[in-house]
Amino acid sequence: MHDAGGMTACAAGFVARVGARGRLPLDYSVASLRVVDFLVDGVRKGGADRERAHDTLVELGAYVGEVLVRRAGAVWVDLDDRQRAWFGQPVGVRMPDGRVWNPLGKVVNRFAAGGTDDSLHTFYLTLHGRARRTPGRGATARGAAA
Known about the structure:
The protein has helices at 7-22, 33-45, 50-72, 81-87, 103-113, 120-125, and strands spanning 75-78, 91-94, 100-101. It is mainly α. The protein has a 3-stranded antiparallel sheet, covered by helices on one side. The protein starts with 6 loop residues before the first helix and ends in a 21-residue tail after the last helix.
């Protein structure tokens, strides 16, 4: 399993591998999370169980987390023992307001549930603690695009 320092590279490797093959629009935009929803559903419908799909789900989770890093002002963090027990993952993202979220777990939940209730696109849009645009400035307080 990856640590926080390796998640950006994990996401980039996934984008390079999948993007070259399928020309999917994985550009780290919020809209690209709809593609991730589609990909998770495809893995599930393809008949893979969670164990066989593990590596792909981690890569998809890394991608979702990297969207949070690039678009919402989050940073990758290694979770402490209590957080690992709660989230079931070793890494997460910390939002500008200090909240910690679990993008890898959100991908696993989408895979397990197989429905639109666990949309990763909706997860981003309803996410608490992300950096927001400052009225009139077009940028967040941290300088990242929202």
